[in-house]
Specification:
Chain lengths: ~220, ~280
Amino acid sequence: MKKTIPLAITFLAGFYMILAFFVPHPIVANSAQEMQSWEIIIVAFTLVLGIGNLIFVHAEKIQRRRQGWFYSLTLLVCLAFMMVLGLFWGIKEGTAYYWLYDNVMAPLSSAMFSLLAFFIASAAYRAFRARNKEATLLLIAAAIIMIGRVPLGSWLWQHVPFLGAKVPALLDQVTQWVMEIPNTAGQRGIKIGAALGAVSMALRMLLGIERSYLTTGGN
Amino acid sequence: MKTFLERLTRIDRRWIFLAMGLTVALALLINVKLPMTVSGDVKQAYDLLEKLPEGSPVLFSWDYDPGSMPELYPLSAAMLRHAMRRNLKVVMMGHWVTGTPLIEKQVSEVIRTEYPGKVYGRDYVNLGYKSGQAVLVVTMAKSIADAFPQDYYKNRTDTLELMKQVKSLKDMGAVVSFSAGDPGLIMWIQFAWQRFGVPVTGGCTAVSAPEFSAYLQSGQLVGLMGGMRGAAEYEVLVDHPGAASTGMSAQSLAHFLIVGFILVGNIAFFLTRKKEEK
């Protein structure tokens, strides 16, 4: 029963939503719309689950004094602090929540993202090798894009004797070509493959073949 | 020579980090302005807003968080400035819970500072964050007030003057998404454009720009601003140089440094390999 009822709900709800695409009758369309509105509430609950899981994982780490437990404690204190500030004093400009967001969270998140540049530089130096034909092609395309996508690249190209002066827009054109032709062809292949995968996974779930979503980790 | 090349292939990555840090810092300090050419994709997005009749409602969706601020914040500022200048009615919202205060920050920096005559509720509305992603978009196509019963400031949405005219997503002249991933621009294309026919444009981080090329070619996406470069080009179009234009010199030098590293790394790799083969 524990599995049969969820499987039946998935089957009925899933196929009803598909049916709503093909049947424009107001009763079907309105009821399908109503069911979609419920999904907003279900998605909101995933936030609660996420926060609950975060608290559980870090509380356990603190309790068992695992390595770095102090960071977990900091996380939970900050989480509770921001939550209390937001719930009781609001999140508008001028509130303590907004001040902390603007002066602590935003700079920290931006700093984390900016580290990417350092790691890309290091990885490019160590791993981006022309070991074979394919790797060489990728390397050349990447170099063209990196140079062609910044104004300094275009400016320098225009000052290259003979070539740059004769065809000043060549670098931009080549960059555009790489983006529009080989890149788009690859992207289309990936997207079509992913879409077919998503359709087959949805069908497997609706037909009850794929049941992993009913279990918790390891069961 | 061999020892030098071998050492070069095994260089400590902290030297690379230092070189990158110094290059970016130096570029930001010197801030050399380079001529910027506007690409067709950015012009297309600009034209979409430019050609809308005055007073048309547009939806701006802040689908990013502070992590992508350096690339997307200048773009959202430039586009918001453009919309305000053109007297478009802007409905703002966000799909990323940690990014919602960025809307408030942008409203404060662009609208309240540069356009103090604009009235909240009449010229612009901030709906804030709501969970639901694609379902939320579909619900908005039925009724925005159903999807967002309250705005960011806890006003009832259906009491706001602008929202009395703009009942559904289908009333929008365009949807603009500033997107750092999912949920973001792709979701708006798939639902707002594909299902309800509302033109969609927007910007994304530089790393995710290539995945939108197929949507651009098919016309499902009207223009695109990729990364800081896209934002800088938009700043040129609205004639208001800002953070993106300043950041382009740093990005230019960083790109050249990475290409330089790739070259040096490959030269060292080939020379040491040849010596080993001998």
